[in-house]
Amino acid sequence: MxxxxxxxxxxxxxxxxxLARHEERQSFADRAGLALEQIVPFDLLEKAxxxxxxxxxxxxxxxxxxxxxxxxxxxxxxxxVMATMAEVVEASHPTFASCYGFHLLxxxxxxQVIHDPKCTEVGAFELTLSEYGRDDExxxxxxxxxxxxxxxxxxxxxxxRGTFNLASSTKAPYQALRVSGKPIWATQFHPxxxxxxxxxxxxxxxxVYASLYSPPELQALIEGFRPSPDAEELIPRFxxxxxx
Length: 244
Hints:
Layout: E1 8-13, H1 20-32, E2 39-43, H2 51-55, E3 59-65, H3 78-90, E4 95-98, H4 100-108, E5 112-115, E6 121-129, H5 131-135, E7 145-152, E8 154-158, E9 163-168, E10 176-179, E11 184-187, H6 195-204, H7 206-209, H8 215-223, H9 234-243
Parallel strand pairs: 1-2, 1-3, 3-4, 4-11
Antiparallel strand pairs: 5-8, 6-7, 6-9, 9-10, 10-11
């Protein structure tokens, strides 16, 4: 299938006045090499999608979240959203989930997500591939250690059965997963973001992290943002792996 014919459904958990809502959609389109109209947004704050709605699209992508946390179960209809995610896995529908989407998938399949501010990661961090990651058909191109853009306070503390851990960091042992035998991947990091995108995202949500850092620490954090070119290849390679 030609990429110009692909239609991707993007699940979003962002308020309508959140500037990151449009920016996130644009980032997914840019990394995927698709026109913006090929990335069709779906507002999780309005309702949970059905499997039938998702199956109308060639693939599913799930973005991050500005104000919601899987560990706190504060998304409207979160249980219904996770039930649909489990159906997506059962149906083997091509999926790539990022950050909040990673947490939704972990919890939906029986893993565990916890709120852990002490292990917050904001900015660019070095991740390490696992043995499964090195052998994975999508992740296998990555070097053993690579930089990725992150922004989270929740983390996965246990992955579900039937998934493989693909990467880790010093603060979070589970940074990416593959559902065994299915075209479904998820990352706690943000391969859809460049360093410039992540700096802009950080500026949108700086108030969320203000309680965790002093002003000098926040400035040092900003100065530590770095490019992550290897991770940025994941989404186009996902499309190539699934659709050829």
